[in-house]
Write a sequence for this structure.
């Protein structure tokens, strides 16, 4: 067990690292953030920050030597330097988990090899004819680069001849996966924590609504049948066990028209769709992450109240001809007793950039969603 008072190293300095640092500090740990860019959301609230490249082995070695355990909030870290860290200090989740999750092709092959339900896909090598491969899979489909992308980056939906040309222009000569386009009923996510002692807990399933590929609303409890809920939870546990996870793992799922669930993506870290836990769960995902990587007993994951989380993007600022004109109407959220506002301290709002989020609790998930939509409209 890594006792309170020790230092946790975090690779990545974004908002997930910031909320992790808040939770760690509350339990009496010190946090050392390693992040290439200065002045990020996590460094600002942590005891120590190192701003060096992920490929700088000397700096990473010094970082690893200065902490008692290392975790990460960001997947796009080259796996090789992590092997060095792992020789010096425990790294959770292990680099083998990151390797599977940071590359779409590896991730999908891993799901297929281990018989987990996933979106059907075809692999395309850089030298293959992408247009021919798209036609073989059939339209509509989604072309995604093999290397990790997020929030819809590195992917394009292909539904006609024109969009085949768009996909070829964007992705020809890159390794890609082509997925069948899934006409899903809704998107779900399940978040699993597994501790170094082998203890596991699954947070209640969230129902997620995306807009332009970016998470817009997370609704808890998800409005699904008990059978689907139980399938999603069991799947989450099975994947965490198979990966030999220590830490947190988010699993994004599609619920199909026939009631089946398919894995879309795995993320071995806290997840945007788990932010609701800060305000409406006995234990937040960030505290659970601290507990899991330090080998502390895991916390209770009971829902305190139905809740909806809404992302606040840079789009919420008032823009005038591309120039920033005014702040969002924070007063609207602050005046609502059942709403909680979380801002990440990012200096520069940009369209599509995650700047913060808010949650609204209510007696039912539907009522929370209605209240959340009304507040979002007033922002
Ligand atoms: P990703 O970056 O792969 O998680 O994709 C972002 C979002 O794009 C997902 O949350 C879905 O809303 C949508 N999407 C991705 N892949 C597919 C697919 N095969 N079929 C339908 N929608 C998809």
């Amino acid at each position: 067990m890594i006792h309170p008072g020790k230092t946790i190293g975090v690779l990545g300095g974004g908002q997930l690292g910031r909320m992790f640092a808040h939770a760690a500090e509350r339990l009496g740990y010190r946090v050392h953030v390693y992040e290439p860019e200065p002045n990020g959301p996590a460094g600002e609230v942590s005891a120590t920050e190192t701003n060096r490249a992920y490929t700088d082995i000397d700096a990473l070695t010094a970082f690893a030597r200065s902490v008692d355990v290392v975790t990460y909030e960001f997947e796009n870290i080259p796996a090789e330097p992590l092997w060095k860290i792992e020789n010096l200090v425990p790294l959770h989740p292990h680099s083998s988990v990151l390797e599977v999750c940071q590359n779409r092709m590896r991730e999908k092959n891993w799901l297929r090899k281990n018989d987990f339900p996933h979106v059907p896909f075809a692999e395309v090598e850089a030298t293959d004819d992408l247009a021919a491969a798209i036609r073989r899979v059939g339209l509509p489909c989604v072309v995604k680069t093999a290397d990790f992308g997020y929030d819809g980056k590195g992917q394009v939906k292909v539904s006609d001849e024109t969009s085949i040309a768009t996909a070829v222009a964007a992705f020809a000569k890159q390794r890609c996966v082509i997925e069948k386009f899934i006409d899903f009923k809704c998107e779900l996510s399940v978040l699993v924590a597994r501790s170094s002692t082998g203890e596991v807990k699954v947070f209640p399933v969230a129902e997620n609504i995306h807009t332009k590929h970016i998470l817009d609303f997370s609704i808890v409890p998800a409005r699904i049948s008990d059978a689907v809920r139980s399938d999603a939870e069991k799947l989450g546990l099975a994947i965490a066990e198979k990966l030999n996870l220590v830490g947190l793992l988010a699993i994004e799922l599609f619920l199909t028209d026939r009631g089946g669930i398919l894995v879309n993506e795995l993320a071995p870290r806290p997840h945007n769709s788990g932010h609701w836990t800060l305000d409406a769960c006995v234990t937040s995902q960030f505290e659970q992450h601290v507990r899991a990587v330090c080998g502390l007993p895991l916390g209770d994951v009971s829902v305190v109240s139905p809740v909806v989380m809404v992302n606040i993007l840079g789009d919420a600022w008032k823009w005038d001809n591309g120039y920033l004109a005014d702040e969002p109407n924070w007063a609207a959220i602050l005046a609502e007793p059942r709403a909680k506002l979380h801002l990440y301290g990012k200096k520069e709002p940009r369209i599509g950039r995650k700047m913060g989020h808010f949650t609204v609790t209510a007696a039912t998930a539907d009522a929370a969603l209605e209240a959340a939509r009304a507040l979002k409209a007033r922002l």
About this structure: The chain has a mean pLDDT of 95.
